[in-house]
């Protein structure tokens, strides 16, 4: 009986650890998406300002 209870406790612990890992992975994935979005928009702003300054320089 004691061994069975220990096994149940271990199983419960591993399940909660798995849930925690999945939540952490979700958080890091959304952070990665935000960083990618920021990088893309930053590149867009950079190219936009570059083309604006080039057009001002040409005119």
Can you describe this structure?
The protein is mainly alpha-helical and 59 residues long. It has a domain at 3-39. The protein is 97% helix and 0% strand. The chain has one helix and no strands. It has one helix at 2-58. It starts with a helix and ends with a helix. The mean pLDDT is 85.
Based on the model shown, name its key terms:
single chain, 59 residues, mainly alpha, 1 helix, 97% helix, 0% strand
- How do the helices and strands follow one another from N- to C-terminus? H
Distance between the termini: 86 Å
Number of strands: 0
Q: Can you give the helix content as a percent range? A: over 70%
Q: Mean pLDDT score, rounded?
A: 85
> What summary fits the major beta sheet?
none
Structural class: mainly alpha
Question: How much strand?
Answer: under 5%
Stretches where pLDDT falls below 50 for ≥5 residues? none
- Overall geometry comes to rod-shaped
Integer-rounded radius of gyration: 25 Å
Count of alpha/pi helices = 1
